[in-house]
Amino acid sequence: MSEVFSSEVFLAYSTYSTIVLLKMLLMGPLTGYFRVTRKVFANPEDAKAHGAKDEESKKVYLRTDPYVERVRRCHQNDLENIVPFVGIGLLYALSGPDLNTALMHFRIFVASRIFHSIAYLVPLPQPSRGLSWIVGMGVTFSMAYRVLKAGVHL
Amino acid sequence: MSEVFSSEVFLAYSTYSTIVLLKMLLMGPLTGYFRVTRKVFANPEDAKAHGAKDEESKKVYLRTDPYVERVRRCHQNDLENIVPFVGIGLLYALSGPDLNTALMHFRIFVASRIFHSIAYLVPLPQPSRGLSWIVGMGVTFSMAYRVLKAGVHL
Amino acid sequence: MSEVFSSEVFLAYSTYSTIVLLKMLLMGPLTGYFRVTRKVFANPEDAKAHGAKDEESKKVYLRTDPYVERVRRCHQNDLENIVPFVGIGLLYALSGPDLNTALMHFRIFVASRIFHSIAYLVPLPQPSRGLSWIVGMGVTFSMAYRVLKAGVHL
Fold it and tell me: Do C126 and B42 touch (CB under 8 A)?
């Protein structure tokens, strides 16, 4: 096993970034679930595979649905926010932070993103979703500050 | 050169993740190709640059096209699936897996994503695209399981 | 601190990829700014939180706006191009490149992406945006070539 895995901070990064990447990945099957159960498809071949026999019913199934669009926006927000966390978080974990400070960053970020998805999908009234989005971004900015403080080469 | 590059598993990760990231990146020029050849643009300045002389023809070029939208969905699916592979795959490569097991994971993933794009763009009848999507996700989940089994710090 | 941070090339990668990931992350608040100031929302709960008192005004606020869509396309283009840079750039930084060559790659990429966003948001006439997009992709391809040349395991 690589030496980097013997560092507790790196192990914490590995654990939390794996969890949050799997959470993001699962938004795909969730979208698929609502597409299939609500018969809302983007591709004619998908409509055909889920019971559209003729051209008429294909057209009926090729539509948008407010809730499917909501799940897709939630997925997109994950991409926009989790990708910077994973990239900057790796550099942060390698920059030698204090273990407890690092754990605090990782835990707050992952909790904020799980809450964000719940707030988006229920949906909960605002500002619950907006606040969890800002908290997650704040964690990424705080890690970026520490990375740049640990060393810059422009 | 960094020591990590002397590890065969890391070299395999480096090779396959570079290939699959380039494949994803090339979806951009492919979208551009269909936008230009079909005269389907999202921005007025693009329509102007590709021959829309007056306001009337600009409006004609600012439209959506079913095939351009298909290429864009294919690109989006790459983002949703290749990003978690690259992130979790890095941790997996550092977690000290058996070389042959790692190669099997990387090869199946890259093959499944190339097949997924072919199935999306031809398009092939379902469930060919759906199955290749599930196979790719299965690889990422299998790597994530190994990463978490190698060590967790919550 | 990790040994990898004592490498000047890795420090340069860390600096530039942090900057470009933060730049991408900031597209989110920028979209939010235009949504709030123009009263253009995608979710009913957001419309309600920003002053839509009844069902009638909610419907008015739930719309698309050409400039908000432009900001969102700019953000999406960042995701499509910055993610491959960060992934391939990490492997490139670990492959032992010459420091000055690496700095040239990182500087051109980050400059091209900042110019790309300006060209998209002003907007500047084409081909300014198109050229900056191609330059950024060229940097990523050049780094990928170097990664694969440094070692391949298929």
Answer: no
